[in-house]
Design goal:
Blueprint: E1 5-11, H1 15-26, E2 31-35, E3 48-50, H2 51-60, H3 63-66, E4 71-72, E5 76-79, E6 85-89, E7 101-103, H4 106-116, E8 123-127, E9 129-137, E10 140-147, E11 150-161, H5 168-173, E12 177-192, E13 201-204, E14 211-215, E15 220-226, H6 233-236, H7 239-249, E16 257-271, E17 275-276, E18 279-281, E19 287-288, H8 296-315, H9 325-349, H10 354-367, H11 371-378, E20 413-415, E21 421-423, H12 424-428, E22 433-437, E23 445-446, E24 452-457, E25 472-475, H13 480-487, E26 492-495, E27 501-505, H14 509-520, E28 529-530
Parallel strand pairs: 1-2, 1-11, 2-8, 5-13, 11-18, 22-24, 24-25
Antiparallel strand pairs: 3-7, 4-7, 5-6, 9-10, 10-11, 12-15, 12-16, 13-14, 14-15, 16-19, 17-18, 20-21, 22-26, 23-28, 26-27
Helix pairs in contact: 1-4, 1-8, 8-9
Length: 531
Amino acid sequence: MSETDCDVAIVGTGPTGLVLAHFLAQAGVRTWLIEKASSTVDEARAVSIDDESLRSLQTMGMLERFLPMLVQSYGVHYYSWRNRLFAKVEPTSTEYGHPKRNAFRQQQLVALLREGLQAYPHVQLRFGHELVQFTQSDAGVQLQVQHQGQLQAMRCQWLVGCDGGRSTVRQQLGIEWMGSTYAQQWLIADLIGRSSSFRHTRTYCDPQRPAIRLPGPQSTVRYEFMLKPGETAESVLSDSNVRAWIAQREPTDADLTILRKVVYTFHARIATNWRVNRVLLAGDAAHLTPPFAGQGMNSGVRDASNLAWKLAAVVHGQAQTSLLDTYQQERAPHAWSLIQMALRIGIYMQPRSVWGAALAQGLLGLICLVPRFRDHVLHLKFKPKPRFQHGFFDPMQRPGAVIPAGQLLPQPRVEAFDGQRHWLDDIAGPGWALLQWADAPVLPMLALPGLTVIRLLRAEEDFLSSPSAAQMTVRDVQGVMQQVLDSAQAQAVLVRPDRYVLAYLDDQPESAHRLQAVLHAHGMDNQSLKA
């Protein structure tokens, strides 16, 4: 390749583009990031990061450096139109290894990811470069990029638009939106220096002025206020007005230093097509999510995690290009379900009248009187599961499986021979993983790229001797994998690089044949199954 060639070009250095670049870099894919700005953003846009995104950062090797920048495991307290607490959402479960809700500052995350890419010589960050247009052919994608007033010609094998809701890539592809843009506007104000140590978000479901208070790291706090009909950005953005609204909710915050204030309109939209030949969309270029569930950025990270290993397999000749069709097939329904969840939450957060607020809040209060329903709300179980309905996994479901094929695998702690306990993903590494019982009968050997084979001991079993250097053996100390495998009546589970279950295996030839058919569908069965 020449200096103007790469395997994958990514347009946009927001969280989605940077996470995608990290995963591709890990897989040895020559990658460019093209960004028209002079650097990554220097302001907090997204402020909530979930357990699945932290798991992705863990896989990238960036989590330990990011943890000091977090407020981990915060909840949301909902206040009624009478300013009385009527509901709490305080999830404590960590089935994916991390707290479900965490506060952060986007500018710190993107700066960390930007700096982390310096460890990969095959990745180039090209700031001050604006994509003007592109054309594509069977051989690749030709880019026209403007830099310092000059047009430059570049070429890549694959192009990914991570360039936001006004994506140049999506617009040039002529891809339409599905969904709605809402006229309702909200004012956001970010401040620093808070003296209140209360860590949970407070949501004021008050028809007089719906508002949200979100504490963040490093003594920051964000306020969001719903505008009324007739109010404009010009009429509400003055410091005096913002401080007056804040004083009504938390007087100690009223005189804090204002870092940022902006009025925004929210969207609930999804692109009708996420791939056109060699060009793909991800993040806000593919879907726009209302802010009420804090899932916009997190959905983009899920896109990157899903797409990266598939692109790498295609680039390295380990899979057919048809594998990339499963990206939208898997991700779009889940992204849309999260958009719908955010809209439902918005019903409670944006009451239009006292009667409407009283009815909605009273109904939720009654629901929470029932322990099972209260736990459903308290532990965020209403959030759509990370599970695919169609895509690249064994479609033959196993009755009773607590984690069906096509669903994200939990991440428990496992114990090594030396007594140290580790997160499962740290043992598995960033590629494919086969987890099987140590005493399982002989199973087909897999030759998938980067495969790690992990032999599992049950929680009640001991290491009888030191495992050989060629074997990775750990104890399922929490019994999580025993529940997963036993419920599926399986001896082993094959896990994709994005931690989703591809298939279960047992000692019956049928399971190996089904796995071979799944791999064959996208050209990944070349010597993958060996006797």
